[in-house]
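G., the chain you wanted modeled:
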Amino acid sequence: MSINSKTIKMINEIIKKNGITFGVVSGIISCLITATIYAIDLNLFLKPWIFVIVIASSLILSIVLLSKTKKEIQADFSFKEAFTTYFIYAVVGLLIATVFNVVLWNFIDPSAKESLEELTIKYTVNMMQKFNAPSSAINEAIKGMKENSPYDIGAQLKGFFTNLVFSSIFGLVMAAFFKTRRSSQE
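Predicted structure as tokens:
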């Protein structure tokens, strides 16, 4: 089946629109989670179930995004189109969340950043002690954490790219799952 340029343009518009829209929603959800935890108790940032909530919301949004986009295209949904949709979503969502975190921890409330760094060090020390890590390893970990705050602007930007890589890998899996399966091709 031949696809004309008008159809390709329409598909590209759907991909961009949905990727951006869902990326904004993802970014806003991430900001709301961070702001809520910030307002309630910084200790919550160290709870594993918070990470599960963030991952679950991202998974749900990506499933809804790709399902909606595939339905709207009303044609074959190629691997490239599915991945492009997801990638746009990931970039926009991560960018919003990263900008929010940079502003919150470095401009709005740097003292909260310092408190969270201390809490993170205490949590790490406790975990390492539970696993019977040697004192030298614990001291080295503390030194490294004090020298390289994960909440500084540079670390946040590095985190953006690291998260984008992991999101892209996840996006490849999602794209493979959501692409249209054609019996004679792919």
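The first helix runs from residue 5 to 40.

Shout if anything looks off.
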